Amino acid sequence: MSAARPLPLLRALAVTAALPLLLTACGYGSEAKKDDDKAQFAATGDKKLSAAEVRIGYFPNLTHATALVGLQEGLIEKELNGTKVKPQSFNAGPSEIEALNGGSLDIGFIGPSPSINGYVKSKGSNLRIISGSASGGVKLVVNPDRIKTLDDLKGKKIATPQKGNTQDVAFLNWISEKGWTVDPESGKGDVSVVRTDNKVTPDAFKQGSIDGAWVPEPTASKLVSDGGSVLLDETALWPDKKFVITNIIVSQKFLKEHPDVVEAVLKGTVKTNEWINANPDKAKASANAKLEADSGKALDAKVLDPAWPSIAITDDPLASTLKTQSEWAVKAKLIEQPDLAGIYDLTLLNKVLKAAGKPEVSDAGLGAK
After folding, report:
1. What is the pLDDT of residues 280-307, one digit of tens each?
2. What's the rounded Cα separation, in Å, for the pair 106 and 143?
3. pTM of this prediction?
4. C-alpha distances in angstroms, 130 versus 127, 133, 245?
5. Which residues, listed in sequence order, are joined to residue 260 by a DSSP beta bridge?
6. CB-based burial of residue 212 (10 Å sphere; 0-12 exposed, 13-18 middle, 19+ buried)?
7. How confident is the model at residue 11 (pLDDT cuts 50, 70, 90)?
């Protein structure tokens, strides 16, 4: 028979044996979130990935809800097995594309027009679209005292966020389909298209220097809260009421060198989207908390509540709608006919979707060969 162990040693062994259970119960330490809804998103496996960090860009917009919630709740980072997420916030597509092309950004959430422009300008060498993120969330909001019908837009001043951006292209196409003409460079014509940063559009609207705006959320709902009226929701113009408003893109260099990291990020975004759609109220609060953390100010409920349900969160990049948007930009003479062959690489996304028992998505014939 072995000799009895001293009492202090027995106590030490008991604590050691209990430690893994304690750490499991606490998640990722004292900072771990305790919401049981998030437990299912814990990463599996202990294998370290090939990059020490991944730099992820996004806009502080509700149309970037996947990024906002995925970062706020840690759902993306939990899939990375120790690879650090370095988030970067941008206010415009060109600056995010510049960061990606310059090597200071690896993965980004961005609209279709900057994706197209960035791909074409680099002759297809610098980025790939690897997933969808959001659809919809764009509205034409007007001053109801000045504009009561769509025909009343003729002769009025309507803001878009930036020349050649996604909303600008859509509005110019809508104008042309009305039979009206506008110079795409100056914005002058039957309708005055005033390119205005979303941050200052609400003030311009309140001051009366514009009569309305074709803008994404939450800017659209901010205008409504200031007395504006929604004259048109862009989803009404699209088949199935779906069109891409946010993509996920990646540096081709990063994709080639660190496909395991890209796959892990996509696992995180797919799980984030699943959680958002299953928990809309919690997700709305989470997105607003991230906006407050980034800007110092949360959205008022009168803006957030109507804006949130107008955005559809999806893994599908809705590639056929990106092709349509590029055709609109060509028709508006903002770009020359682009060669978009290879702009998508949905290989890793479809791998993740298949493993999760979800349907695979299409690149509309624009996939990398």
Report:
1. 999 999 999 999 999 889 999 999 999 9
2. 41
3. 0.84
4. 9, 10, 14
5. none
6. buried
7. very low
The two structure tokens encoding residue 127: 């980025």
Distance CA(107)–CA(286), nearest Å, equals 21
Q: What is the DSSP letter of 189?
A: B
Q: How far apart are CA 342 and CA 345, in angstroms?
A: 7
Encoding tokens for residue 110?
């961005």
**Is residue 309 reached through a cis peptide bond, with omega within 30 degrees of 0 on the bond before it?**
no
Report which of 334, 320, 292 is spatially closest to residue 62, judged by C-alpha positions: 292
Contacts 24+ apart (CB under 8 A), 253-258: 253/103, 254/51, 254/54, 254/106, 254/107, 255/128, 255/130, 255/345, 257/50, 257/51, 258/49, 258/50, 258/51, 258/54, 258/106
Per-residue pLDDT tens for 49-65? 999 999 999 998 899 99
Say how far apart CA 105 and CA 273 lie, in whole Å: 22
Q: How far is CA 12 from CA 8, 86, 139, 226, 273, in A?
A: 6, 39, 64, 65, 44
**DSSP state at residue 4:** P
